[in-house]
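Troubleshooting entry. The earlier prediction with guanosine-5',3'-tetraphosphate gave an output that would not parse, so I re-checked the input for stray whitespace and re-submitted. Clean input:
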Amino acid sequence: MIKKKLDSSFFSEIKKRRTFAIISHPDAGKTTITEKILLLGKVIHKSGTIKARGSGKYVTSDWMKIEKKRGISITSSVMQFYYKLHLINLLDTPGHEDFSEDTYRIITAVDCCLMIIDAAKGVEERTKKLIDVTRLRNTPIITFINKLDRDAKNPIELFDDIENQLKISCAPITWPINCGNLFQGIYHIQNKEIWIYNKNVKNNKEKLFFFKITDLNDDFLDKKIGKESAKQLREEVELIHQCYLSFDYSFFLQGILTPVFFGSALSNFGIEHMLNSLINWAPYPIYRKTNIRKVEPNEKYFSGFVFKIQANMDLKHRDRIAFIRIVSGKYTKGMRLLHVRTRKYFVLNDALTFLAGDRFSVNYAYPGDIIGIHNYGWIKIGDTFTQGEIMKFIGIPNFSPEVFRCIRLVNPFKQKQLLKGLKELSEEGAVQIFRPVLNNNLILGVIGELQFDIVIERLKEEYYIEAIYESINIITARWISSIDNKQLNEFKLKYVANLAIDGNNQLAYIAPSLVNLNIVTSRYPNITFSKIREN
Ligand code: G4P
């Protein structure tokens, strides 16, 4: 197929798009920051619209019944809005402790990530895992260190923590002046501005106060923030100039350096600095790889891939929505598309765009945008859509589950329905199934525990099956491959009790402990034990 390019007006549509996701450990402030970003984008007009955990109200992306029962957000939504002439596609990632594989896969569909760190806690476990996923595509990361209005770790300590634990260099863009009760604001290193924090100013209703300071040694600084704070700021800024890299755009694009901002999301302080830089620095949609070639966004023909499937977005319709990230070309209502896996053409008349829980029919969409397609099960995660070219986007994987259980039927005669239900749920990415080679157990694996409850609930409501779980001694799974057939066969014989076939008929090693996994991997160096499996 000829890679015909579209004109400059099409390219300007691409260039104005920023598709990103927020990653953080639960409670670091993702929901609060999302809300402030939506306020800045004028999507919402007052605080409290998004965040309502524990208050009886629900965040706007709470679609499913189980979410409402628990009062938490577990599914991810997409929000599209304008900010300063840029079109933002913000992909929401479940941030609760019980988040799912969706969270990981969403990261593979964005062009940039905003990482939020709680200033009192530093790098936490979930953040580490999410950053590991960004490494698959070397996604650029912007960092926001939150909650400076509370007692916080020393900023240098926080930088060391990020650099050591996440293996990414920090380039400070803003720098805090004290913290907690003494928090006075930030120094914007690039703009040479001091922004004064006023704890009585909430949600940016009043204009924030700032002043230019071209020379930090100017006495004016002492007058404005006090002698002690001015002295400390001078010392710290001198130190950071010596110890940290200044912002290098190409390092940022390679995901090896992160610009760092400080602030307080609750008081809407520092978010605007971060967002203004994000629209300038986050890359606009670029090429993606397929099994045969790179696809550039400004190619004439439409292409895209499915990174998420959401069931029951509308309980009245019992449908599923496949979320497609557009990679190239322009979606136009009524266009004829090829579903590459099944080689079937269809006319797409009712693609959807999203604003949190609300969905609207869309007439046009461009690379970087996310569109939704209604379907009743014929679309799978990882599917590619084109206007005729036979190719498949790569890099939308399954991730090794982190918790496992054995599922059993209450009524054993419904085995067929159970398998059908589990197959469909696994195609949505809600759960992964493993069937041991040596017995008839059905093992389910998920990233967050809550998915187990969702599976039981959905089996009951949608497939009329009652099932229960039993615990099982599995800590992790690895997909197996090798070109050394001799070693592979020897391994299969010796460890047959630990082998299972997953829902995609791939061989996996299910490990009872990490020690066991380490022993086995070191014993069989010619076998690849992979944490991810391409769809
Ligand atoms: P999450 O989505 O990452 O889980 O975090 P979320 O925004 O829900 O924030 C977790 C808690 O931290 C919330 O308090 C929130 O108000 C608070 N928080 C977020 N940003 C800041 C900040 O900049 N400063 C301070 N002091 N607190 C912040 P909560 O008590 O759990 O909920 P709520 O009752 O305040 O809603």
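This one parsed fine. The pocket of guanosine-5',3'-tetraphosphate is lined by residues 24, 26-32, 51, 95, 146-147, 149-150, 264-266 (CB under 6 Å).
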